């Protein structure tokens, strides 16, 4: 009888420890990411891709992004965390075939070309977007991200420093976790 009582107590203690260990995982799944404040676009609004131009000055085509989610990276050449996340975003492109990555910068096209070559970006860049970013949409923080659904509508935005390690830099795991969560919620 004492043995059975001990097993019950052991089981209860084990269950309490297991619950304590699972609790942080549950909390992590419910983590609320801070969206960029004061944007003129709300979730579900069409993102103005057709107002953007590539590095040769040609207007971007919405059709080139149709059918896939679009991860937009808002960056500036003078932003050190933006530079550190380039290899991570290159990996996102390689590992996630259902996602397009697009960089949007207020930098002039020549500056963006140099940045692209120096840091080996493997995705399209829309340069000279200062009016669109600052005045029309209201993006004020670099690096930051936006996620568009398969139809070019805004799902959500996030500060890049929420997607990574303790050093405040976005990581592959942090970005992919955010993408999975937000893409899943966009399908609902």
TrEMBL record:
Q: Which InterPro entries match?
A: AhpC/TSA, Thioredoxin-like_sf, Thioredoxin_domain, Thioredoxin_ResA/DsbE_sf
Is Signal set as a keyword in this record? yes
Q: Which UniProt keywords apply?
A: Signal
| CDD domains assigned | TlpA_like_family
Q: SUPFAM superfamilies of this UniProt entry?
A: Thioredoxin-like
Taxonomic superkingdom = Bacteria
Q: Where is the Thioredoxin domain?
A: 41-180
Q: Which PROSITE patterns match?
A: THIOREDOXIN_2
Signal sequence span is 1-28
Q: Write down a Pfam family by its short name.
A: AhpC-TSA
**Entry keyword Cell division:** no
**Name of the protein in question:** Thioredoxin
Source organism of this protein record? Undibacterium squillarum
């Amino acid at each position: 009888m004492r043995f059975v009582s001990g097993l019950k107590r052991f089981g209860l203690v084990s269950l309490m420890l297991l619950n304590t260990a699972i609790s942080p995982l549950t909390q992590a799944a419910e983590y609320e990411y801070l969206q960029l404040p004061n944007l003129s676009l709300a979730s579900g609004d069409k993102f103005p891709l057709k107002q953007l131009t590539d590095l040769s000055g040609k207007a971007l085509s919405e059709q080139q992004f149709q059918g896939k989610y679009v991860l937009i990276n808002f960056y500036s050449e003078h932003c050190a965390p933006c530079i550190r996340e380039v290899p991570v975003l290159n990996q996102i492109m390689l590992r996630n075939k259902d996602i397009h990555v697009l960089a949007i910068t207020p930098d002039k096209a020549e500056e963006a070309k140099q940045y692209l070559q120096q840091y080996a970006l493997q995705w399209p860049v829309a340069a000279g977007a200062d009016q669109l970013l600052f005045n029309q949409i209201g993006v004020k923080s670099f690096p930051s991200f936006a996620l568009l659904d398969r139809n070019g509508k805004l799902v959500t935005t996030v500060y890049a420093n929420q997607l990574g390690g303790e050093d405040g830099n976005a990581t592959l795991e942090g970005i992919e976790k955010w993408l999975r969560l937000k893409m899943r919620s966009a399908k609902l």
